[in-house]
Amino acid sequence: MTTTDSLFRDRLKIIQKKKGYRFSIDAAILAHHIRLRATDIAVDLGTGCGVIPLILSLQTPSAHIYGIEIQKDLAELASGNVRLNHMEGRITIVHGDMKDFKSYLTPGTVDVVFSNPPYRKVLSGRINPEAERAVARHEINACLSDVVSVAGGLLKRSGRLVVIYPAERVIDLVLHMRASRLEPKRLRLIHPKQYSGAIRAIAEGVKYGNPGLNVDPPIIIYKPEGGYTDEVKNMVTVHGFRGSGFRGSGLERKA
To answer: Structure pTM?
Structure first.
């Protein structure tokens, strides 16, 4: 069974499964931190139902975006969403393993890579019995080093990688980025509430970039009295997510 959710006041429609993988507010936060230019080629590693490429294509229609998805059902769903929104000329969905990218993309030709990669190591925590959610959240088919090394292979000089990842694994992320010649240039921590610890981070790296990290002001998700802060409310509204079909907040414990 599926649901059809409307974004951007019905300018986008997204079909996603009622059970199984569903996008969350993590997608809205990640989309907010990706900037595409008119001639950019971009790649989404692990595109799911294709929600972020669809949003970015609506905002920058002349860019071309590839969504890579290893799970067949999700790749078919993403392809269907591209057709539903008449974006066949702007978005290409590839059903395949990101580690085999050389079979469908030319190394060193991509301007921007972005990803909401699996967060959890295979042996950490309970693995969700729903296969789609398990693969999306645990390093079953791809681990962090795979995501970052594939990005390093795809990106041209000065190309950018933008990811959202657990704050507790930021050191792992930075080490893998540098190992793939992607210099960390920007970091922003995400906190559920003002006085709580960070549980997510947005990180951006530049291929062959010069050393020097900018740490931006934190994102606070919820106000003390409840509800989103003005900044997050703006992200949700600007990227069309208000009233859409989130599974949870994206900031709850994932399993």
So the answer is: 0.87
Are 220 and 173 in contact by the 8 Å Cβ rule? The answer is no
Query: What angle, 0 to 180 degrees and rounded to 10, lies between the N-to-C axes of helices 51-59 and 25-32?
Result: 40
Is residue 254 in a domain?
no
Query: What is the rounded distance in angstroms from the CA atom of residue 248 to the CA atom of residue 25?
Result: 8
pLDDT higher than 60, residue 1? yes
153 belongs to a structural domain: yes
For residue 78, tell me if it sits in a domain. yes
Closest CA to 35 of 177, 150, 160, 158: 160
Look up tokens 């995400």; give the residue.
Answer: 190
CA atoms within 13 A on the CB side of 189: 17
Number of folded domains that form the chain: 1
Structural tokens at position 104: 């469908």
With a CB cutoff of 8 Å and minimum separation 6, the contacts of 241 are 7, 25, 27, 28, 235
What integer best gives the mean pLDDT of the chain? Answer: 88
Q: How buried is 103 (Cβ within 10 angstroms: 0-12 exposed, 13-18 middle, 19+ buried)?
A: exposed
**pLDDT exceeds cutoff 90 at 20:** no
Of the two residues 8 and 45, the one the predictor is more confident about is 45
Q: What is the pLDDT of residue 238?
A: 63
| Residue 125 neighbours by CB distance under 10 Å | 14
Where is 42: in which H helix or E strand?
A: strand 41-45
Residue 104: domain span: 2-238
pLDDT of residue 121: 60
> What dihedral do alpha carbons 36, 42, 48, 49 form, nearest 10°?
60
